[in-house]
Design goal:
two-stranded antiparallel sheet; mainly alpha; 10% strand
Length: 178
């Protein structure tokens, strides 16, 4: 555990060694994505450390990332175990003619259908877990990229319906910079 904290502190302190102050204000999207790919949530923490807006809080993102990855991976592990259990029950029935009490109500055809359904669910959960992982990497990169954009009250976009005397309707867009 101690080496884990040393590694993380090295990763974050490495940026301070030879960087000028402009990079400290604007986090690097590439570095945020790499950090987040290495350790989920670290890219979001990196963006928080180097963001010029001190009211920007990221403390809620890391638990969301880890809880979604945890629950998706737990569901994936459960489906893998269920599929193996159904497959073993089917092979035991075919080879040894033995029945497990848990699966006694199913015949061989229904066990094959259950196994196919469990395999399909396993594959879906595999892609969901990978998608969650990729989304958090993309979110860290996009958040670093947009960290220097102005989102103050001086910017506004006004959308209003428009109707003309020539029986034409539409939308008008007004973009104001104050």
């Amino acid at each position: 555990m101690k080496s884990f904290f040393i590694l993380i502190s090295f990763i974050f302190s490495f940026n301070l060694v030879a960087q000028d102050t402009t990079n400290l204000i604007h986090p690097s999207p590439k570095r945020a994505a790499i950090l987040s790919a290495m350790l989920p949530g670290s890219g979001q923490i990196y963006n928080h450390i180097y963001c010029k807006n001190k009211n920007y809080h990221v403390y809620w993102k890391v638990p969301v990332i880890y809880s979604t990855l945890y629950f998706a991976s737990q569901a994936l592990i459960n489906k893998i175990q269920l599929e193996k259990e159904i497959r073993n029950e089917y092979t035991n029935r075919v080879d040894k003619k033995t029945f497990d009490e848990k699966w006694i109500t199913y015949d061989n055809y229904n066990l094959v259908l259950l196994q196919k359904n469990a395999a399909k669910s396993r594959n879906t959960l595999f892609f969901v877990t990978g998608g969650i992982y990729l989304i958090q990497v993309l979110e860290a990169s996009i958040d670093a990229h947009f960290s220097h954009f102005d989102i103050s009250q001086n910017l506004s976009l006004n959308i209003q319906p428009f109707y003309s005397n020539f029986n034409f309707s539409g939308l008008t867009f007004a973009f104001n910079l104050k």
